[in-house]
Every structure is written in structure tokens, then in C-alpha cells.
Design brief:
Number of helices: 2
Largest sheet: 6 strands, antiparallel
Distance between the termini: 50 Å
Radius of gyration: 22 Å
Shape: extended
């Protein structure tokens, strides 16, 4: 009888231990599906000093004269860039504020960034997805021409934090993992 209880307890423990990673995977998948995905035109270039690549786009340099919201910022300050999707899943910024909005939705959303500089009415913002280590396929493509025009897809969670999803160059999409 004791052997049966021990075997049963071992089996139950095994199922519980196997279930924990499965629940973590399911939760991660749910979180990824709830993120807002969008694309924007970008320039992808290798960095001279390291293996990383840089992404640069209009999201990094915002003209405060064309934006609604606040217009006084300091270097290092957290900002929230309000965006709206246009044709082709391309997102466009329309406002920038110092405070996180109370609510967001799937058509008008925000991305959280940090002010890296202010130059003649231009707000320089970094979002923490612009520097990345590319796959070997993408690395060889970009290294041949140094700078590439492309599209970048990112996902934004409900806190406004962005993560890189993929980079498209010459019609070829390279997923980022």
C-alpha cells in the first residue's frame, strides 16, 4: 500500500512539475498576443564599434511644432509618444507628453521613451529597441551596403514598453528573437 501511495505521489508531482513550464509558456503567449504591433519606415545600419546594429526612424526625432501635448522636456526625462495607425499598419506619432495617459486602445496607443536630446525644436527620443544584435542572415545583408532603408515592426505592451519583432529589408523579413 505504501508503494502505491509513493508511486501515486511521484506521478502527481511529475504532472505538477511538467505543468509549470506549460503555464509559463501559455502566459507568455497570451501577453504577446495582447501587445499592439505596428511598423514604421526605418534606416538600419551597423555600428562601427560592436556587433550591434542601430535602427533610426522618424520616431527618434519628433518635431515639437507638429506634435500636440507638452513642449518642455529635459534630457533623460521619460516621455510618452501617442501614436495612431495609418494605412498598411504603419504608425504615426501625433502627440508627446510627460505623463502616461490613463487609458489606451488598439487604434490610438503610446510608446514610452527617454529624451536623449533637444535640438532646435526637435525632441530626440530613444525607446530601447533601436540597438540590436542581428541574425547572421541580416548581418551579411546589411554589411554589404552599410545602410539599408527598411521597415521595422515592434510590439508595445500595455505599459508602453516596446520590443523589436522584425526588420524588413528589400521585401525580406527577418524575425528578431
Amino acid at each position: 500500500m505504501t508503494n502505491v501511495k509513493t508511486i501515486a505521489a511521484t506521478i502527481v508531482t511529475g504532472f505538477l512539475l511538467a505543468g509549470i513550464p506549460l503555464m509559463a509558456i501559455a502566459r507568455h503567449s497570451y501577453i504577446q498576443k495582447s501587445d499592439i504591433h505596428f511598423e514604421f519606415q526605418s534606416i538600419i545600419s551597423p555600428r562601427a564599434d560592436v556587433e550591434n546594429f542601430d535602427i533610426w526612424s522618424d520616431l527618434n526625432m519628433l518635431d515639437l511644432n507638429e506634435m500636440f501635448g507638452d513642449n518642455r522636456f529635459v534630457r533623460g526625462q521619460t516621455v510618452y509618444v501617442h501614436m495612431s495607425k495609418g494605412p498598411g499598419n504603419i504608425a504615426y506619432p501625433f502627440a508627446v507628453t510627460r505623463y502616461k495617459p490613463d487609458s489606451i486602445n488598439r487604434s490610438i496607443f503610446m510608446i514610452k521613451g527617454k529624451v536623449s536630446g533637444i535640438e532646435a525644436g526637435q525632441l530626440l527620443v530613444r525607446y530601447n529597441f533601436e540597438k540590436f544584435l542581428p541574425s547572421s542572415d541580416l548581418k551579411s545583408l546589411v554589411r554589404t551596403t552599410r545602410v539599408q532603408q527598411g521597415k521595422t515592426m515592434i510590439a508595445i505592451n500595455d505599459q508602453g514598453v516596446a520590443r523589436l519583432v522584425s526588420v524588413s529589408i528589400s521585401g525580406e523579413t527577418y524575425a528578431y528573437r
